[in-house]
């Protein structure tokens, strides 16, 4: 790991932010400064590199789906989690309802909204949001994570599409009872306030097989971590996941708040903030940074130069 490489990646990506736009369908997200860029890299050896806006707080949005999936696997087990949620890339936008309307179609994976809402329905019956927030703090190595009330209220005021998805899921028997409670749980998880450093911390825990890097405490079981990282690789970048896997080859999860979480197995976690998004909903700067680092540090899963 060289600081100069990270600085070069951020400099190059900063010039590309003009290619994207901040999310506005949740009005509070539209207030973000699209020119901001930051990246943090936390290695298993204890080295930490941060460049740019790495302490700026923003809402975790869909990256929370990684945490929710992990906790659901711990509480409910593999078979129950994937009873009503698939494991395949959807090829559609993260909030699409098209394939869900087919007679026997379950949500394609836990990283799109429909799948994450089903996961939220499992969790809402078994664990409080306050407990989930404490778990998120632990997994992200960040005790200062809180609920961003402004984002939460803004998202709940513009939730018609996710509400439609949730009630469609209920009509198919994939959500049991209390759809509104499930939606509030889902949106609260998306409204957690994190930083690029928080995401690097979560990436490091996943890279370290679910073990806290400082205390040695096991936070997640081995099978949970393996499943989560695999789903991130195949489905984590919305309907741009396939191209991202080919070009970058790093298990990652994006969010429309501008964050990207990346895991280099047994090596490091990477957290990125860049709220200017491409047409898939992924951070423009984040995509450039990860492609740059992947090439310079040979991070692609199938890079034989490692």
Which structural traits does this protein have?
2 domains; single chain; five-stranded antiparallel beta sheet; three-stranded antiparallel beta sheet; 8 strands; alpha+beta; about 45% helix; 12 helices; Beta-lactamase; about 300 residues
Span between N and C termini?
A: 13 Å
- What's the tally of helices? 12
CATH superfamily of the largest domain: DD-peptidase/beta-lactamase superfamily
Helix content: 40-55%
Task: Briefly say what this structure is.
With about 300 residues, the protein is an alpha+beta fold. The protein has two domains: about 5-60 and about 195-295, Beta-lactamase; about 60-190, 3-Layer(aba) Sandwich (Beta-lactamase), CATH 3.40.710. It has twelve helices and eight strands.
Descriptive overview:
The chain has 2 domains: 3-61 and 193-297, Beta-lactamase; 62-190, Beta-lactamase (3-Layer(aba) Sandwich). 43% of the residues lie in helices and 11% in strands. The chain contains 12 helices and 8 strands. The chain has helices at 3-14, 64-76, 78-81, 113-124, 129-139, 149-156, 160-171, 179-190, 196-207, 222-235, 241-247, 284-297; strands at 38-43, 48-52, 58-59, 146-147, 192-194, 252-254, 259-264, 268-273. It has a 5-stranded antiparallel sheet. A 3-stranded antiparallel sheet has the order 3-5-4.
């Amino acid at each position: 790991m060289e600081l100069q490489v990270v600085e070069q990646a951020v400099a190059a990506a900063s010039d590309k932010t003009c290619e994207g736009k901040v999310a506005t369908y949740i009005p509070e997200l539209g207030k973000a400064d699209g020119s901001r860029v930051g990246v943090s890299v936390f290695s298993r050896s204890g080295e930490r590199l941060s460049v740019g806006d790495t302490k700026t707080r923003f809402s975790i949005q869909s990256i929370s789906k990684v945490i929710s999936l992990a906790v659901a696997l711990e509480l409910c087990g593999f078979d129950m989690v994937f009873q009503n949620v698939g494991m395949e890339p959807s090829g559609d936008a993260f909030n699409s309802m098209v394939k869900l309307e087919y007679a026997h179609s379950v949500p394609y994976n836990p990283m799109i909204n429909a799948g994450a809402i089903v996961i939220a329905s499992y969790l809402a019956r078994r664990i409080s949001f306050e407990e989930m927030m404490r778990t998120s703090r632990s997994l992200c190595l960040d005790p200062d994570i809180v609920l961003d009330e402004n984002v939460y209220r803004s998202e709940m005021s513009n939730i018609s599409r996710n509400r439609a998805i949730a009630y469609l899921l209920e009509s198919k028997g994939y959500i049991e009872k209390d759809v509104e409670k499930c939606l509030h749980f889902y949106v609260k998880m998306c409204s957690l306030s994190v930083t690029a450093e928080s995401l690097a911390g979560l990436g490091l825990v996943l890279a370290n097989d679910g073990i806290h890097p400082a205390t040695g405490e096991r936070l997640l079981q081995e099978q949970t971590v393996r499943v989560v990282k695999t789903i991130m690789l195949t489905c984590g970048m919305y309907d741009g996941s396939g191209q991202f896997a080919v070009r970058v080859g790093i298990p990652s999860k994006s969010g429309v708040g501008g964050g990207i979480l990346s895991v280099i197995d047994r090596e490091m976690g990477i957290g990125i903030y860049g709220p200017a998004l491409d047409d898939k909903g992924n951070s423009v700067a984040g995509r450039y940074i990860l492609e740059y680092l992947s090439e310079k540090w040979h991070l692609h899963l199938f890079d034989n130069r490692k």
